[in-house]
Amino acid sequence: MIDSDIPYTLPEETLDLRQKVGQFFMPAVFINDTEEEVQQMEKLIKECHVGSICFFHSRASAATNFEGKKKIVHNEKSYDRLLELIERYQKVASVPLLVAIDAEWGLAMRIENTAQYPYAITLGALTNGDDHIQQVGKAIGDDCRRAGIQWNLAPVVDINNNPENPVIGYRSFGDDRERVFGKAKAFLNGMTNSGTLNSIKHFPGHGDTTTDSHLGLPIIDKSMEELMENELYPFKKLIESGVDSVMVGHLLLPQLDADNPSTTSAKIISDLLRRKLGFNGVVISDALNMHAVSKKFPKKGNLEQAAFNAGMDVLCFSEHVKEGMDKILTHSSKERIQESFERVWALKQKVFSIKKKLNQPEPNALSKLNREIAAQSITELYGDASIVAKIKSSDFLNVSASLGKTNSFSEQISSQLGVEIMDLDAGLASNNQNIVLSFFPPAIKPKNQFGIDKSTLGSIHRLIKDKNTLIYLFGNPYVLDILQLKESSNVVLAYQDFAEFQEVAFDHFSGKTKAKGKLPIQLKTFQP
Question: Full-prediction pTM beyond 0.90?
């Protein structure tokens, strides 16, 4: 189904006040829901005149499984299920739904067997890569529109200036305000070219915190001057350029509002975002089920009312739609309701008026783009380049710490250079002092040491301490902060474990290509 085929002719005048309030709600919908749960959502959409929905993978995914205790079931046919559910939900809607998703690095963020593009931190390593970033934004937008999704809740424009940030990290373009602004602008230009709506997030800036807002309320204790100088800079510049929506994160900024998290703060939404920064578009909340705010409003509907009262237009992941509607209808003026309705309505009019033929992507277009980005982003962090030369010219050991992932990099060293692959224990036991270590951290997020077990981490520590080790890292560069690197350590950052990135890494090792990327962040423990 192509969303541009949806008829959108319902005049505004036919909606009563309750129907208009329904347009503010964006409940979560899940690919792996049961038929009973799907029918319940159909009933909710129909009865409450829901304005938008946001797709997540399953009720065991990160969207509701913050502690990671539920098992996530892999679904090979989730894309087909996505198309089916979009069609069903649109059919029962009195007004065409805005269908949203978090596709920061493609539909693969939520949907199996769909195109995955590089993370923002990888794009942040590109030194002259705005064209490639724009291509990524365009391709992701096209993928969304082909599926019937009009609204990609991206990009992240948080400046990740805290290496211990548990939830942003790799989702940010970096820790420099100009870099974040420029690369976000390129991404937005690409999405706009596809006809996909965007949302810059997480206002007023989620980068400088060690708290995950899924679990608790992060505190950003900075003055307005400090915020304008850094955190707010990308938001301000992008708002001036024009964006469809701004997502407000769940943050406490005591110097601006000591009593209310940003989600429910009129001082932050109405005063700062609307008046000071001049944003007149749609303001959407981060997921309202997140513990940073949901635990503070135990009575159903109160959180939705508080967020709306503070200036919010769209209530993402509202778990209490009916109660929230009743509260807003009871406590909000007709003028306030009309104000938000007009913003949401304008967004719908904009996206559904686009008549754009969406062709299927060229064969191998994704692989070609990923390889080009890999070649431009690969980064050298050399503490002692003479050791690198010594390793490469020696009878080095080809040590793999792939931790369950496909390691074609080591396989290429084996097949093309004739150096047998060995594991960490064999590398440690050998008398050979020269090591090429290819390392694939199991997780992209820092929780539980990026998923690295204590034994593996200990072996890597010993290898780095006792041997001349050249590390090729296929993962989050923040991993380097837990590897106990020395000043003389040498690392090549490939950032992703995609096949294309491993091919480029082998070309780099072989001397066929030079490293052109630049680390977009500051590390705590390793600054060669």
Answer: yes
Q: Please say if 286 is a catalytic residue.
A: yes
Q: Which among 49, 57, 202, 214 is annotated as catalytic?
A: 214
Which among 3, 158, 175, 286 is annotated as catalytic? 286
188-243 pLDDT per residue, tens:
999 999 999 999 999 999 998 877 778 889 899 999 999 999 999 999 999 999 99
Phi, psi of 399 (to 5 degrees): -100, 130
Spatial CB neighbours of 449, under 8 Å, sequence gap ≥ 6:
457, 482
Sequence-ordered list of residues with C-beta below 8 angstroms from that of 481, at least 6 positions apart, any chain = 163, 523, 524, 525, 526
| Tens digits of residue pLDDT in 405-463 | 999 999 999 999 999 999 999 999 999 999 999 999 999 999 899 999 999 999 999 99
Q: How far, in Å, CA of 325 to CA of 25, rounded?
A: 8
Cα–Cα distance, 182 to 171 (Å, whole number): 15
Cα–Cα distance, 302 to 324 (Å, whole number): 7
On the question of a cis peptide bond just before residue 298, with omega within 30 degrees of 0, the verdict is no
Q: Give the CA distances from residue 367 to residues 125, 188, 263, in Å, rounded to whole numbers and listed in that order.
A: 19, 22, 39
- What sign results for the dihedral spanned by CA atoms 41, 44, 47, 50? negative
Say whether 130 is catalytic.
Answer: no
